[in-house]
Amino acid sequence: MRAIVQRVSKATVTVGDEQISSIGRGLCVLLGISVEDTQRDADYIVRKILNLRLFEDENGRAWSKSVMDRDFEVLCVSQFTLQCILKGNKPDFHSAMPAELAQPFYNSILENMRSAYKPEFIKDGKFGAAMQVHIQNDGPVTVELTSPTGPIDPKQLSKLEKQQQRKEKTRSKGPSESGREKGALRSRQDPNASSGAEGDVSSEREP
Amino acid sequence: MRAIVQRVSKATVTVGDEQISSIGRGLCVLLGISVEDTQRDADYIVRKILNLRLFEDENGRAWSKSVMDRDFEVLCVSQFTLQCILKGNKPDFHSAMPAELAQPFYNSILENMRSAYKPEFIKDGKFGAAMQVHIQNDGPVTVELTSPTGPIDPKQLSKLEKQQQRKEKTRSKGPSESGREKGALRSRQDPNASSGAEGDVSSEREP
């Protein structure tokens, strides 16, 4: 499952001349479900959307608050084209979940998001309709989320493997460590796990 | 290098109260450059943006024409937040190319796009400024592009491996083939040996 999360000042959806949905500050999420996605992917994506720290706090400190922390809204729109494989320059969408399966799954994802936050703060497009999605990207700030069973970045994996090896060495020489780092490589495959002991290298970058 | 490509009816960029950029039908591209990106990544992304078939032809047949085929415009905005690694729920941007390197690289990418198409059809944001990017996503249609040295989709890799195996079989039975396909898989698995130094990981970046 892949989600493109855009931080917005506002966002609306129109179908024809009719505005069917609208939010103020918050997140506009374009959600692409693949044929292989399961409830586990959905749970991960919902949790990340709601808890991602893409907003500043009351003192203006960037990347410190989530959409829920700030009482902002979410506009979620189904977007099968995110499950795209290029055949040359032609997009192929066979890895997207077929609409008849994707629609109930997508609806259940929205329901989960509503249960985990405030139902009235989760807005929707119109599944399968030709829409105009008006996104006022604020920053801009855009983040791509990929669920655990989705693509893995091999560079990151190889980096984690090297870190792992270094830690193994350190462990065999030095004082005993907790098993926490051992989990680091696994946690890439299971990104739900905590980030591990890399230390805080968080940036304070403004959007 | 990662690009989020949105098909748009129109798109504009404002900085403060001033509208600094605007396109009609075409593509709005949010472009995230990583510390490891090279000219090769840039060339791939430029080629794909300009040739991706995201538009219908004159008979309404979908996915048949590129932005160049249709004489549409491109609004490209630099977006370092696409090079995001989550540490729990906090985004970390140390894998984004630092602004002082990214800005000239980004400008060269725009120039390449202008040379390959029509200079006046390629619009820009304002590098590093706090912008509002107004995107009227038409469909919606959104595609993520990742350059060859970027993340690999393991599903696609496994497909390539199977293709490879089939070809090996054919080769052992049938007429000889060039070594080209053999190289294709290798280059997929080791997309970029020359990642370069990690360089500065400065934060404090504007978008």
Descriptive keywords:
D-tyrosyl-trna(Tyr) Deacylase, Chain: A; 207 residues; disordered C terminus; cytoplasm (chains A, B); two-stranded antiparallel sheet; tRNA binding (chains A, B); Daa-tRNA_deacyls_DTD (chains A, B); 4 helices; RNA-binding (chains A, B); D-aminoacyl-tRNA deacylase (chains A, B); homodimer; six-stranded mixed β-sheet; alpha/beta
What would your notes on this structure say?
- The structure is a homodimer of 207-residue chains.
- With 207 residues, chain A is α/β, with parallel strands linked by helices.
- The first copy, chain A, has a single domain, classed as D-tyrosyl-trna(Tyr) Deacylase, Chain: A (3-Layer(bba) Sandwich), CATH 3.50.80.10.
- The first copy, chain A, contains 4 helices and 8 strands, in the order E-E-E-H-E-E-E-H-E-E-H-H.
- In chain A, strands 1, 2, 3, 4, 7 and 8 form a 6-stranded mixed sheet that branches.
- In chain A, strand 3, helix 1 and strand 4 form a beta-alpha-beta unit.
- The longest helix of chain A has 20 residues.
- Chain A is globular.
- The C terminus of chain A is likely disordered.
- At the A-B interface, strand 1, strand 8 and helix 3 of A face strand 1, strand 5, strand 6, strand 8 and helix 3 of B.
